[in-house]
Amino acid sequence: MTHLMLGFRNLFRQKRRTAISLAVIAFGMGCLLLTLLHSRYIEWGLAESTIHTETGHLQIFDGRYFSRDENTVLEFGLEDVDAIRSEFSDWPDVSLALARIDFMGLMSNGDKSVACLCRGVEPSAEKKLRGMFEISSRVYEAFAAQSEGMECIALGKGLARSLSVKEGDYVTLMSTTSRGALNALDLKVIGTFSGYSSDYDARAAVVPLETAQMLLQTHKVKNLLLALNRTENTDLVYSRLLSWAEENGRSLAFKKWHERAEYYQSVKQFYNQMTGFMTAVLMIVVFFSTSNTIVMSVVERTREIGTLMSLGTSRGQTLRTFFFEGMFIGLIGGILSTAFAWLVAVGINSLDVVLPPPPGLSDGYPLSFRHEGVIYFAVYIVTVLVVSVSSLLPALRATRLKIVDALGHI
Amino acid sequence: MNEKAVTQGMPAVCLQGVGRSYQLGKMEVPAVQGVDLDVHKADFLVIAGPSGSGKTTLLNMMGLIDKPTEGRIRLSEIDTTSMNLERLVRFRRKRIGFIFQTFNLIPVWSVYENVEYPLILNRVSSKKRAERVEEILERVGLAARGRHRPRELSGGERQRTAVARAVVKKPEIVLADEPTANLDSRTGAGILDLMRRLHAREDITFVFSSHDPRIIDMADRVVHMSDGRIADEVNHRRKS
Fold this sequence. Notes:
The complex is a heterodimer of chains A (410) and B (240). With 410 residues, chain A is an alpha+beta fold.
């Protein structure tokens, strides 16, 4: 206890140096915390965006979809989709079940043809899912209201630009049917949308599900997406789906959202690498800064160390005194870094700052921070550990001093 | 022999052919050579001599904070030459008190805490610690200054604190290296007087170094050193 208190009181000997060390820790670990909170925001935002625009929380496929290659479009598509959907209507965690078809096509304005990636969607369900990309409610309403012979389509902005078409123009969409024949439909352009990247926008188009089925001449869909009330319940519902399929003898394949989100995974990996590198750099800075402070303390207090050891203080007790000093710097520095990061995060979040779009993406993204207690706690613990450990080397140096030399130190 | 056994009549410290030399580059420089000395229990002994005569080196070896390169040192009949570090620490903690020329108080501790520290190291209960610290502060005239930090004290008060710290654990021997060198002569004499009173009351052996003739005159026994050797020994008076 005496050496613990001595370690604490030693903080106030060289107030300026202690303050500088605390400032370095507060700024360094605070910046690390901000990086992690922003990275977490991006990850969380991208996850929710991916779920609500691309993948849903869970996807249901025909059991053969991933084990065999399709010879024709939707050969292993999902049949009886409404029957399957009805099974989940009373599952409390499932908020929505929606069918989709993805297929390749060739789109023409009469003069020019462009290969495109088309998606057949259920307008009302997609609208509830919060809509694909920036497709406005008006487009979904037009999809829902379309009549036979007046089918419509929404194009990615890049695709519309490439074909030089605008709202109200007609395009011809051609594709291979499920039996291998060619088929085409004339579709009225009722709007454009932006996806997550300009490359995607230059190829993407969306049509109502029944239009896609009409073009492909099938009643099947590619898959059924389940949207849940809470993303955290994904694993729970996944397990329940597996049990349900086994009990009912259904040959279905299930995928969690992140297994179908390559873009999300690559962005997450990028951020993990970036934050990992920053974490290492900032920890090294903090480590050496604190270590330097303790080294200076050891040098300045060499005679005092000699005195204490001559009085009968053991090497272990001397080591503990300096370790405690480092630990207290870590404890206080951790609190300061947490406070610094929290204040900056709250301040910037309230300003709604939008950063310019990165190369290859269509839109900018908000500079926001997601407050997660576990990240604050983890960084605090890491701060205390790094700073405490950084004091060990100089503390060991103190214990190796010869008493006579230490007493003669000027 | 058991470390705690202290035999009446036996010397508190016995130096036999003690020498200490330092390596300076390729040269070996002797600081102390062939010292034979018995310090008796309850001696009030001064090691006198000019700067560089080996006084401090001799005190350091007697205090087990430096090791002789030749000879043997016995404290309370225990040969300390082959003691390991842990045993030396325990020995110093229980049996030896130090007073330094520059006081060497811990600046972030109060007077009370500085004096209490050796008792904490010796795991004395908090109640007994409080009693003993108050008793010793009373004796050195610092009862009212217990809460003050060293920087708030005069030089004499600081050295009295250091004296209190040295004697609080009732060591067998107190070693003081030039305890009055940083004090004016009147304050220095006051410190010597205090040490004398504690010596009589606490029955502690005092060995200190000095080159001040007025201080040397106050000692019972004076050992003069020159060039690392004992040149002369004078007994002024012996305490019975």
